[in-house]
Hints:
14 helices; alpha/beta
Amino acid sequence: MTASTWLLDDVLVVPMDGPADAPLGAVRRASLRVRGDRIDAIGDLAPGPGERVVAGAGRVALPGFVQGHVHATQTLFRGLADDLPLLDWLRHRIWPLEHAHDAASTRASARLTFAELLAGGTTTVQTMESVRHAEVVCEEALAAGLGAVIGNCLMDLPDGGVPPGLPTTAAAAIATTDALRRAFHGRGGRLAIAVAPRFVLSCSDELAHAAAGFARQHGLRIHTHAGEHPAEVAAVRARFGRDYVEVLHAQGLLGARTSLAHCVHTTPAERDLLVATGTAVLHCPSTNLKLGSGIAPIAAYDALGLRLALGADGAPCNNRLSMLTELRLAALLQNLAAGPGAQPAARMLWHATRGGARALGLDDEVGRLAPGLRADLVLLDLDDAFLPVGVDGAAALAGAIVYAAGERHLHAVVSGGEVAVRDGELLHCDRAALRAEAAAALPAVLRRAGLAR
Length: 453
Ligand SMILES: [Zn+2]
């Protein structure tokens, strides 16, 4: 049986396949044919007999966004942990709340997450979940139809204000990841399981080494946090007598399959280690500002050749899961940190798409618009009085998208060839029902966490 096709007709295609100084590639008006879950062809294409045609005139087609760092399990906790620095945010809110999750509340949180991601044009995401119930998140990622790299977070140290019962033993933590691997890795062609130590302070040396070995044995990605907040960095130095990335390296956790969220605070020696091991960095600008952590030196990392992705991190530390928000903020912050032009809008857009795909090892699958790749598309409608008029050239187009556009300009989102958003509305889920499900699940979680109001 031949997979069905449809044609996106006469759209401005932004392939995101260009070199570093012109990352958008050859932007051109063309038609794009989708066959099943893949891009079949891009060019001057006539519709086949009976082929469905979607009008693209006046719109811009980008690759679906790739987010490198999100916590689906935390979305239910949006607005419950505002205005706290990282370690207090974890100890007083996030760990007790994660510990109080059951499968039903985790499911409500995951559904909210994937709906919000798709609504904002994110079609591939890497997430770190809580110690328990990550299988529910995997089920919901499959149901949502986006690409996902998911890991249960590994933590086995009971100190540092962690609620008793949240950490497990090292063996149990790895066994949970192994069960996820057996059940979900490769399922649907778009779901991968990652090994996800929470952060250096929550893992014993035994667990960290076991995690590195397990990831190597099964060819899995490693996803963890590093160098986020000055107080955390100081605590790592006090415990280990060396810096964060050096500890991760000694534990065997760095490498081409590893990505580290944040890296706001790194020494030159740590940066050398990131380069030498080919480790990727996941930049979460909203979170870094909201928790008062600092500005990650993304322009410097890019100049070193590190692979970079953007991410919204958790809803309680953002409080959005919007790539367009992260894109704008990331670009503005680097103009401040490194000077205007050090990371131009076009380069940031590259990090949000192809660069993100490279950071997650998915460059052959997503992040560009090219025949054979997965049909993940964002369709923007930039014909708006409040956006730049007379946009001429790739740099101006990238500037319009990164600095001026918002989610109201997202006309459609296609994930794996399926239209998930049309006219700005999610087609396959009911936002009111999602909100009602979340509202029903939250009170019991707050009670169990001792945070009931
Ligand atoms: Zn995080």
